[in-house]
Design a protein that fits this description.
This protein is of the alpha+beta class. The chain has 13 helices and 17 strands. A hairpin with a 4-residue loop joins strand 12 and strand 13 (444-448).
Length: 545
């Protein structure tokens, strides 16, 4: 807009462009006339120098040595991999083989490893397991040939020529392969470069031809420049200045918020690319504005959904702890995100019987909270009929999680039933951090670990019920791994030692709520302001003195 309003400024710009193009067009003719074509031919002459030819030959040799070294590295990795596999032992079960390969591949420093089994009907080698799993750049089967009789590492060709691999036989029916992978197309580019370098043998003839062409070209340029420099310079100056005026106008309009405006000037050179880029930028700005508005709406909806989920999760925790004569209870949960995967519950299932549980669902966020809600509902619904035998309830919960959850979903859980009259506790620990029993009368600390594996992983009833009896002033402390695995800025973990020291320091005169608060405070002091990485939950049961 400013350029259009000031035509004198526009003409001044055109005059400067005209002078620039005149100098640019005439200067080569003057330089050629004064200094001659010798200086222009010097770079062409240097292209046929022996040193440059030797450099090209050296480049070809380096490429060949690189290919040989990659194959040697693959063979060495295969030998190391074979030794590690022989030491650890590996059958043909894909899951077991995959685990062994995953560990062994790190030691042999290969990009991948694979186990093939000989198919007698083919015959060909069939892929059984690989690391990384489902590695797409290796073949699912290999031709058998005479490889079953070859000893030691040998080159293994793959359909992808950028996979450099070697293999070694494990007996007559198993083939162990390891190797390295190059960027896709690398070998093809190396071969093409080698072919291009080999063509340099005819550089002498090419240089002679180029010498003649350069003399002719510069002679033509001198003649054309002398005749047409003034006309061409004027046309170029006008063609450049007019689109710039339009772009200046469009810039002012876009800055004023008019995202509908487009530059309509047509050109046949790089200016058209600039105009197209400017119009595309304006279109993208318009689309981004709409996207930002839509994104803001979606984020607001997600925030509302998470707030609803948080409130639902809070409602799952017990509103009030049991009021049992002679007993104190305290519990809390602090999620790492808006919603979390930690779970605790404590409620009376029968007269004199209190069920308490604490769990941790794999992961954090909305998905973990949904699994936690399922665990809460199942324990609440089944506890009334199974409270006399915790292991039975745990087995039914495990079966449900395996049948209804994703394979990567698992839960650690400690579930116990307290007899408030005798102080006896029957419990099952399913992969949860050890539960601490602070025996004040004996001045000792015990850990409750009897139970079984994680829930939702291993089918079947593998759970054992443990028993323990609390005396007066004794405390039972349950924490999630968010406590023991809390980290400080130095990346040190709080660990079980920190928890034991905190509980011991409480003594026998601390109430359940005070013990819980001291644990949380100790973790916060240890973290020194570091971001909470996992949910933290604490549950304390204490028999009054």
């Amino acid at each position: 807009m400013r350029l259009v309003k000031n035509p004198m400024k526009t003409r001044g710009f055109e005059r400067r462009l005209l002078v620039f193009f005149l100098l640019l067009s005439v200067t080569p003719a003057v330089v050629i006339a004064i200094f001659g074509t010798h200086y222009f031919l010097a770079p062409v002459e240097r292209m046929s120098s022996p040193a440059l030819r030797a450099s090209f030959a050296n480049s070809m040799e380096i490429a060949r040595e690189l290919e040989t070294k990659l194959q040697s590295d693959a063979s060495t990795a295969t030998e190391v991999l074979a030794d590690e596999v022989s030491r650890r032992g590996m059958g043909t079960d894909p899951k077991v083989a995959g685990q062994v390969l995953a560990s062994a591949t790190q030691k042999c420093r290969a990009d991948f490893s694979a186990l093939y089994v000989l198919d007698s009907q083919g015959p060909h080698w069939t892929l059984i397991a690989s690391h990384p799993p489902e590695f797409e750049r290796i073949d699912l089967s290999l031709a058998a040939g005479d490889t079953t009789t070859v000893a030691g590492p040998r080159e293994i060709p793959f359909a992808d020529q950028d996979v450099i691999a070697a293999g070694v036989n494990l007996g007559e029916d198993k083939l162990l392969v390891a190797g390295v992978t190059l960027e896709a197309g690398m070998m093809e580019r190396m071969k093409k470069t080698s072919n291009d370098l080999s063509l340099y043998g005819s550089a002498g003839q090419w240089v002679s031809t180029m010498r003649i062409y350069i003399i002719i070209v510069f002679a033509v340029i001198v003649v054309i420049t002398a005749i047409s420099s003034a006309v061409v310079s004027r046309v170029l100056a006008r063609r450049i200045s007019f689109p710039i005026q339009e772009l200046a106008l469009a810039t002012d309009r876009i800055a004023g918020g008019d995202l509908e405006h487009r530059v309509t000037v047509k050109s046949r050179d790089e200016i058209q690319s600039l105009i197209s880029s400017f119009n595309n930028m304006t279109q993208e700005l318009q689309e981004n504005k709409a996207n930002l508005i839509a994104m803001a709406k979606r984020e607001a909806q997600v925030a509302r959904d998470f707030e609803i989920a948080r409130k639902v999760q809070e409602d799952l925790f017990p509103d009030a702890l049991p009021d049992e004569p002679g007993w104190e209870f305290a519990a809390m949960c602090r999620p790492a995100k808006a919603v979390g995967g930690d779970y605790y519950d404590i409620f009376e299932v029968a007269e004199g019987k209190v069920l308490f549980a604490q769990g941790d669902v794999a992961g954090k966020g909305l998905g973990a909270s949904l699994v936690m809600a399922s665990v809460h509902a199942i324990i609440r619904s089944w506890a009334g009929t199974s409270h006399t035998e915790p292991s039975k309830l745990i087995a039914e919960l495990n079966t449900y999680l395996i049948s209804s959850s994703a394979p990567e979903t698992f839960v650690t859980l400690f579930l116990g039933i307290l007899d408030t009259v005798s102080g006896g506790v029957r419990y099952v620990n399913c992969g949860h951090p050890p539960v601490l029993v602070h025996c004040c009368s004996a001045g000792s600390m015990e850990e409750l670990t009897t139970g079984g594996p994680l829930l939702g992983v291993v089918p079947g009833d593998h759970y054992e019920t443990g028993e323990f009896k609390l005396a007066k002033s004794d405390s039972l402390v349950l924490v999630s791994d968010g406590v023991t695995e809390a980290k400080n800025p130095k990346d040190d973990m709080f660990e079980m030692e920190g928890l034991l020291a905190t509980v011991r320091s409480d003594g026998s005169d601390r109430r359940a709520g005070e013990i819980m608060e001291s644990i949380v405070n100790a973790v916060d002091r240890f973290a020194e302001g570091s971001e909470q990485a996992d949910d933290i939950s604490v549950l304390v049961l204490r028999m009054k003195p």
